[in-house]
Amino acid sequence: MGEHELMIFGNKDLPQRTPERPLVTFAVFAYNQESFIRDAIEGAFAQTYEPLEIILSDDCSDDETFLIMQQMAAAYRGPHKVVVRKNHENLGVLGHVLTVAKMAAGKYMVVAAGDDISFPDRTERQVSFLERESDRVVVVSSHDVIFDENCDLPNQKQDSNLRLRKQWYKNNNSWFHGGTACYRLGVLRELPLPTSRLLYEDMALINIFKAMGYSSGFMEIPTIRRRFHQLNLGMQRPERNPWDEERRILRRIEHAADVMDYAADVIEGEGGKAAKLRVQAAIMRKYAKWPDLNFVDRFLLFFESLKAGYMRKASAKVLLGKDVVLDIRSLWC
């Protein structure tokens, strides 16, 4: 899983880190996001924190994403160091994040998606939070502000999203929102690269951190503007053909099962925790075959999930509905 030669722009001689101001990496991760990547990079360049290493990383896009990264980095004249790189092959989100983590120079790594926009004080706020916490708090995430392709705010999503995240964090103190995450890099660097293309890096890391006794922090203030559009990995799309949407959800559940197996491999020595994750992955794969199951099989799967203490949102709809009625978060949050 190689990469093109690194290109370095901007302030190549960053000032030395100090105990009060550690060097931080701000990484923009992109894949086929030529329509949005300029906004994401401008958000990175606008960060007020120093000293800051910015990594613009492309996951083998087949559009103009990487070219735009190069052009903007070459034109940058600000105080930050800017590194541009591209994977030789598409690694998926988890492999992409871990690959960059292993080359990043900072004490912390702020993660930014190529279709979102970080507020200028994002790094300042998140680093300040982690600097106040113990080393057992390995990641901090935050609320966000959602906007669509027309820059309109679907406000009805804001309050419900924040309520859900607060509840998830209350239920699991290792939970975090991956799209707004800032990590302690020392922990990420120790994790093995996946051998296959895996999505949902936060799902894998939440389970790994929890098994290893790490926790997370959550800031209720927004640190990014998150773009809601048709290519979002985790967005539900009720306006689509219901059968197309069903197949998309089933594929997501299969991807999630692969992610859980990766997490189980990483924590194999942590008592029976790996075995529990493998059970969960097996249940996910059964749900991914939902349309092919008859009523009896669905009924049995429902109770298998409950017995495993796994699907807290199980309902009669799961038993009786003809369509897939599960949000993927029902299977792991």
Description:
This protein has helices spanning 37-45, 65-75, 92-103, 122-132, 156-171, 185-189, 201-211, 242-266, 273-288, 295-307, 316-320, and strands spanning 7-10, 24-30, 52-58, 81-86, 108-113, 117-118, 137-148, 182-184, 215-228. It has a nine-stranded mixed β-sheet with strand order 1-4-3-2-5-8-7-9-6, with helices on both faces. By secondary structure, it is of the alpha/beta class. Helix 8 (242-266) runs antiparallel to helix 9 (273-288). Strand 3 (52-58), helix 2 (65-75) and strand 4 (81-86) form a beta-alpha-beta unit.
What structural class should be given to the helix and strand makeup?
alpha/beta
Helices and strands, in order, run as: EEHEHEHEEHEHEHHEHHHH
Biggest β-sheet strands, sense, barrel? 9 strands, mixed
Question: Would you identify the regions where 5 or more consecutive residues have pLDDT less than 50?
Answer: 233-238, 312-333
From the alpha carbons, calculate the radius of gyration and give it in angstroms. Answer: 20 Å
The largest beta-sheet arranges its strands as 1-4-3-2-5-8-7-9-6
Give the overall pLDDT as a whole number: 85
SS strand fraction: 15-25%
Strand runs, count: 9
User: DSSP helix count?
Assistant: 11
The coarse silhouette is globular
Give the distance, in angstroms, between the N- and C-terminal Cα atoms: 31 Å
Helical content (DSSP H or I, runs of 4+): 40-55%
Q: Which properties best describe this structure?
A:
single chain; 333 residues; alpha/beta; 40% helix
Task: Note the topology.
Layout: E1 7-10, E2 24-30, H1 37-45, E3 52-58, H2 65-75, E4 81-86, H3 92-103, E5 108-113, E6 117-118, H4 122-132, E7 137-148, H5 156-171, E8 182-184, H6 185-189, H7 201-211, E9 215-228, H8 242-266, H9 273-288, H10 295-307, H11 316-320
Parallel strand pairs: 2-3, 2-5, 3-4, 7-9
Antiparallel strand pairs: 1-4, 5-8, 6-9, 7-8
Helix pairs in contact: 7-8, 8-9
